Amino acid sequence: MKEFKYRKIGEHSRVDESLFGTAFERDVLITGKDTVMAMWAEKKQRSCGDVSDTILLHNDELMKMKERKRRMLAREAERRKKEIAKLNNEDSLMDSIRNKALEAKYEQRDEVKKMNQMILHGKVNTIRDTQIEQKRQWKAENEAMEKKLDLIMDIALIQGIHQDEEKELKRQQKLKAEAAMIRSQIAEREAKRQLELEERERERQLLVKQMEALQIEEQKTRDQKEETKRMLMNEINSHNAKFSKEKEERQAERLKEDMAIAEYQREKAQREKELEDRKREMMAAKEKEIAALYAKHEKVMDKQAEMDALRARRAMDERERRERLKETQEKERLGRINAELAEARQKQHRDKVQTLAQMAVADQEEFDRMARVQRESEKAEKKKREEEQLKRHKHAEELRRQIEEHEKAKLQRKREHIEEAIRLKKEQEEDRKTLETIKVIRGVIKSHEE
Q: What secondary structure does DSSP assign to 388-435, as a single string?
């Protein structure tokens, strides 16, 4: 801000100093526009956050303001030049007046004093008139500048209101777009959920069909196993019946063989008895014959008779020996036959027992295998059911979690919308209060100016 000081007469001059006044400094006056600008800057800072407090103007308005500023500065420079020239002229006039005052001092003339006073009064009045005119011009310029600043502030305020309205419109459009997007997402999730439910229903039906097919297959397997078991039991029963029949037949054969052996032994005993009888008869006959021969040839052929008797005895001994050997061989043959029959019967019995044991072991192993397969199948089925149940439980938990998150997000958006509405309402209330304050300040300024 410019400072203006009056020029005065020299320090040793006797001119009344009150005619010139005293040097002064202009006071700083805070007008209404400064308060409005501060309030408007604070409002913009609250609404825009970290955005700069600079008022945004268009390029053409900025150029116009610069041009006006340049013209004002040029006029101010021209005015200063004129004032300096005028003051220089006034200095020369004051020098002449001082010279005249000195002359008047030396001369000590009352007329000169009176003339100097009149001249000084005229000069003071002229300077005061010039100062008053300058103050009037400065006041007019300041009022014009204040009006321009008020207009700029009004334009900036209107632009800010328009920007706020555009922001509100964009926010509403954004909220509508977000609401449409949320509705679209909800519809997509609902469609996806329906597809998942349909897919799950198809999987369930397929699983039911598979379970039914598995049950049918298991029933067929059980039927086949029952049939196999029944056939095996029939075969076992058949084998048992056959074995019983064979046993009975063997017992019958054994009985028959025993009877045959007994008959053979009886016949053998009979034959042996008959043979013994024949032997005794033959011995008796031979003895009679020998006795007769001995008696007949006792005298003639004693030596020859002894030789014949010896040969006959030897032949008889040989026949007996051959008979005993034959009997021994027959006994050995019968013993071997009986031993072979007993061994064959024992081997057949062992084979049958072993076959039955193997069949029983195989049957037990098959039963154990079927039971193990059944247990494993039941265990796998139970595990599958548990996994399905766990999967359904997890899916239900996930759905519940998504629903809760969706509800929380919905509540959060609703809360944000409410907070945004409250904030906008507060801003509108603050704007209204600001406008009212501006109106009041303008009224006060106008009343003060009047």
A: HHHHHHHHHHHHHHHHHHHHHHHHHHHHHHHHHHHHHHHHHHHHHHHH
